[in-house]
Amino acid sequence: MLNFLPGPLLGLIAFLLLLLNILIWVPLLLAFAIVRLILPFKAVRLAIDPLLLRIAEAWIAGNSGWMILTQRMDWDVQGVAGLDPCGWYLVNSNHQTWADIFVLQHIFNRRIPLLKFFIKDQLKWVPIMGLAWWALDFPFMRRHSEDYLRRHPEMRGKDQEATRKACEKFALIPTSVMNFLEGTRFTPAKHAKQQSPYRHLLKPKAGGIALALNAMGDKFRAILDVTIVYPDGAPGFRDFLCGRMRRVIVRVQRLPVPGQLMQGDYAADPAVREAFGEWVKQLWRDKDAQIAGLLAATAR
């Protein structure tokens, strides 16, 4: 364990190990992904996609390794026992910091299939990582404001189509579809701007989870509703690397797939949109209360 080192030195070591882990595994991912690109046949995809997932799992295990080596964290995790690494799951979580990604990957790696995130389109240009996300079939999404869509109506529905195409690929082999309902990281400024009715959360957006359920709801074994709490405050990425994230609480709740919402057309039917919206709002009210309770318990 290296957590006795000064924070800046510890952060440098953690960053170098993170980078080394990327440089080991991403070239392997790209090699197999290029073969899949050259030979775009279903049989080739069915053969190569499991290999890509095993490589990604080894990559995540490497991240867990350097986290254990460099960080001194108290992990309080409940709800991950008995999950199926060969089943399909729809995973939802609150979102506060980039560290959420490492937390989610650490607790779920090899317990459920690889988490597939919906990535903001501009992130595909991130060096190395953009290629890795492409190789792993992470869908890149353009999120347009209502004002933009009014001026460019031809763009309406593009994200929905991208979601449907992504889910077609996800349906071929066991996959965990990851969705941050808030759509962005929580900050006090965003919370105030939204005038969010929740104390610890931004307003949820039901569209992504609704389209995933419409596209492949019959595949999902359950919805995994994840609540992440940092009792000492959500760390920035630099704080995380420098070992300043000392405690993290994670609660995972398995929810049944809402069959009554799977069959409707979210994009076209206002009644379905309203039903989804009410379901998501109740989910968020429960999560907000859970976060308040966990923070109160740790403050005693």
Gist of the model:
The protein is α/β, with parallel strands linked by helices.
Sequence-ordered SSE layout with sheet pairings:
Blueprint: H1 7-38, H2 42-70, E1 74-78, E2 88-93, H3 99-108, E3 115-117, E4 119-120, H4 129-135, E5 140-141, H5 146-151, H6 158-170, E6 176-180, H7 188-194, H8 207-216, E7 220-229, H9 237-241, E8 247-255, H10 259-262, H11 270-299
Parallel strand pairs: 1-8, 2-6, 2-7, 3-6, 4-5
Antiparallel strand pairs: 7-8
Helix pairs in contact: 1-2, 1-4, 6-8
- The assigned structural class equals alpha/beta
Oligomer: single chain
- The spatial strand order of the largest sheet comes to 1-8-7-2-6-3
CATH domain topology: Glycerol-3-phosphate (1)-acyltransferase
Number of discrete helical segments: 11
CATH architecture title:
3-Layer(aba) Sandwich
Poorly predicted tracts of residues: none
- Described by the principal axes of the CA atoms, the overall outline is globular
Terminal-residue CA separation: 29 Å
Query: How many domains in all?
Result: 1
| Share of helical residues | 40-55%
Outline the biggest β-sheet: 6 strands, mixed
Give the radius of gyration.
20 Å
Report the portion of residues in β strands. Answer: 5-15%
| SSE string | HHEEHEEHEHHEHHEHEHH
Number of strands: 8
* Overall pLDDT: 88
CATH class: Alpha Beta
